[in-house]
């Protein structure tokens, strides 16, 4: 297990800002966190090198890209042994419909976030990815009605989105 990184109040404030919008210029970030531009750049470089910041990503609107339906799928495996679990984890990443996957505790073994454009696509996905995998015992689908929080974007007032 990795050791925790020592973060001071400036690091935490900087992380809060880049989680909200990682395209903010360093001069704006400097004003917001109370540091110089060079200190902000130095800290961001260190946070990336130490893998505190693991990716700079874009949150994409699925409705505008043909993936308007989001499902959360709870998957139970036949046996929760390492070979079965690792095999499923290795295979599920190859399905482009899966936009998030977690190994979880409880009655289920995995939680998947699946994004598709239509129910027919979801049906094809489940047949291909879950139905043909002999290690999968069962799965439960939760259909997302609306997104409340996605990476902090939902924390902004609606008029700002």
Give me the secondary-structure category.
alpha+beta
Strand order of the largest sheet: 2-3-1-4
CATH superfamily of the largest domain, called what? Lrp/AsnC effector binding domain/regulation of amino acid metabolism (RAM) domain
Radius of gyration, taken over Cα atoms and rounded to an integer in Å: 20 Å
Low-confidence stretches: 154-161
Beta-strand fraction estimate: 15-25%
Plain-language structure description:
Helix content is 35%, strand content 19%. Strand 2 and strand 3 form a beta hairpin. The longest helix has 13 residues. Helix 2 crosses helix 3. The radius of gyration is 20 Å and the shape is elongated. The chain has 161 residues and is an alpha+beta fold. The C terminus is likely disordered. It contains five helices and four strands, in the order αααβαββαβ. The protein has a four-stranded antiparallel β-sheet, with helices on one face. It has two domains: 41 residues, Arc Repressor Mutant, subunit A; 82 residues, Lrp/AsnC effector binding domain/regulation of amino acid metabolism (RAM) domain (Alpha-Beta Plaits, 2-Layer Sandwich).
């Amino acid at each position: 297990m990795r050791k925790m990184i020592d973060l001071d109040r400036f690091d935490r404030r900087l992380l809060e800002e880049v989680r909200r919008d990682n395209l903010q210029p360093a001069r704006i970030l400097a004003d917001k966190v109370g540091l110089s531009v060079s200190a902000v750049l130095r800290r961001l470089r260190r946070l990336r090198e130490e893998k505190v910041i693991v990716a700079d990503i874009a949150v994409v609107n699925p409705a505008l890209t043909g993936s308007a339906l989001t499902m959360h799928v709870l998957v139970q495996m036949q046996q929760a042994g390492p070979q079965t679990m690792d095999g499923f984890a290795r295979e599920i990443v190859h399905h482009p419909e899966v936009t998030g996957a977690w190994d979880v505790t409880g009655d289920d073994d995995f939680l998947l976030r699946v994004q598709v454009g239509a129910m027919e696509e979801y049906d094809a996905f489940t047949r291909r990815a879950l139905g043909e995998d002999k290690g999968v015992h069962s799965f439960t689908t939760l259909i997302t009605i609306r997104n409340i929080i996605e990476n902090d974007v939902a924390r902004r007032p609606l008029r700002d989105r």
